[in-house]
């Protein structure tokens, strides 16, 4: 078989190590996974109940248009139903955008340390990824603007950025959007939108009316705690949504995902509770990092990127042997690990393990 030449050297996405795998490899009974930015408190009880109630309908195909969920989400966001498309996680929306719009030789601009799926999907379609270095861990919008050419098809802004956790404030984002040519699509990935408490942060949905080239991505995988069900969504002009829909598979979200998301969306009190607990967790971890003399980026999602002052993979391995899974391997930040904000108990266990790991590596506070 002869694959497309542009995918021969394409790296395979490596998710955080599964808990079961670590238990088996290292003979551990207790493992804490803080690698994939999952909600440690899980889904709302109402969402779980809705999923259980739907089990009798497993023999039925899902509603391909997700009509009920679309209507509820449209009401929640204050947009029309034809502004919304659902996917198997927001990852699928990224892939669908690339499939619908990218031709070989098109250029797409992104940060050099951001969500890797932007580049991999551009590579699959034969587009050229222009990677712009982050500035203090944040998107350098002026430098990104300077890279726009007549071949530029799309620009990706991850806000908060994964893995650094930094945000682009609203005034800077609006100035940037105003300067981008109307024919260049801007995809604003707000997967961690519900976690942000900083008042300078923007709500991308509110910018759609004035910027018709904007696409906003969000997900039920993070604060809503439905990562296992894989459901996310995109919000854009009806014209853009219609084009993306043309390349979407007919039944790309499941019945369980739809009913779970519908119930989760209705329980905004639970969302607020998770947001508050996450904010407390950030304060807890940042205080401990300061005590240990470790610098970290400002955290606006449900994760923190911290400089452990040693090769990150060495610290990753030392933590893994203690049953703590984090994330390493960020090429621009070889001494940084990314850790998900866990429960207070999980955070305490992580800090104890990190302190031991750093002592083994000769790092002193």
UniProtKB/TrEMBL annotation:
Alphabetic keyword roster: Amino-acid biosynthesis, Aminotransferase, Histidine biosynthesis, Pyridoxal phosphate, Transferase
Modified residues (N6-(pyridoxal phosphate)lysine): 222
Top-rank taxon, per record: Bacteria
The protein's enzyme class: transferase
Catalytic function, reaction form: L-histidinol phosphate + 2-oxoglutarate = 3-(imidazol-4-yl)-2-oxopropyl phosphate + L-glutamate
Enzyme Commission no: 2.6.1.9
A single MF term (Gene Ontology): histidinol-phosphate transaminase activity
CDD domains found in the cross-reference section: AAT_like
Keyword Cell membrane: no
Cofactor(s) the protein requires to work: pyridoxal 5'-phosphate
Translocase in keyword set: no
This protein's pathway: Amino-acid biosynthesis; L-histidine biosynthesis; L-histidine from 5-phospho-alpha-D-ribose 1-diphosphate: step 7/9
Occurrences of domain Aminotransferase class I/classII large (ranges): 30-354
NCBIfam families reported for this sequence: hisC
Subunit structure: Homodimer.
Family: Belongs to the class-II pyridoxal-phosphate-dependent aminotransferase family. Histidinol-phosphate aminotransferase subfamily.
Protein name per Swiss-Prot or TrEMBL: Histidinol-phosphate aminotransferase
Organism field: Paenibacillus phytohabitans
């Amino acid at each position: 078989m002869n694959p497309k030449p542009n995918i021969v050297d394409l790296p395979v996405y490596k998710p955080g190590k599964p808990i079961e795998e670590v238990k088996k490899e290292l003979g551990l009974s207790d493992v804490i996974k803080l690698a994939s930015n999952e909600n440690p408190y899980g889904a709302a009880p109402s969402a779980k109940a809705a999923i259980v109630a739907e089990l009798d309908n497993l023999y039925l195909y899902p509603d391909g248009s997700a009509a009920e969920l679309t209507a509820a989400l449209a009401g929640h966001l204050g947009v029309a139903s034809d502004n919304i498309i659902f996917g198997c996680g927001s990852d699928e929306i990224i892939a669908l955008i690339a499939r619908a719009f990218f031709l070989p030789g098109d250029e797409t601009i992104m940060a050099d340390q951001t969500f890797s799926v932007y580049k991999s999907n551009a590579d699959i379609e034969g587009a050229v990824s222009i990677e712009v270095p982050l500035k203090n861990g944040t998107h350098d919008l002026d430098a990104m603007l300077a890279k726009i050419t007549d071949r530029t098809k799309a620009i990706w802004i991850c806000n908060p950025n994964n893995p650094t956790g930094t945000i682009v404030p609203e005034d800077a984002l609006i100035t940037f959007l105003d300067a981008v040519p109307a024919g260049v699509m801007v995809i604003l990935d707000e997967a961690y939108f519900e976690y942000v408490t900083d008042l300078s942060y923007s709500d991308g949905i509110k910018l759609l009316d004035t910027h018709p080239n904007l696409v906003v991505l969000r997900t039920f995988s993070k604060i809503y705690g439905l990562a296992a069900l894989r459901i996310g969504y995109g919000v854009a002009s009806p014209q853009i949504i219609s084009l993306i829909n043309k390349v979407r598979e007919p039944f790309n979200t499941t019945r369980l995902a739809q009913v779970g998301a519908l119930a989760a969306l209705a329980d905004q009190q639970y969302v607020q509770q998770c947001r508050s607990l996450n904010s407390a967790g950030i304060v807890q971890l940042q205080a401990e990092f300061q005590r240990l003399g470790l610098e970290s980026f400002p955290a606006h999602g449900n994760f923190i990127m911290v400089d452990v002052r040693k090769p990150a993979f060495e610290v990753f391995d030392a933590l893994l042997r203690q049953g703590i899974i984090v994330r390493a391997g960020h090429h621009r930040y070889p001494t940084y690990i990314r850790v998900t904000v866990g429960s207070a108990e999980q955070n305490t266990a992580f800090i104890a393990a990190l302190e031991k790991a750093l002592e083994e590596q000769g790092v002193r506070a």
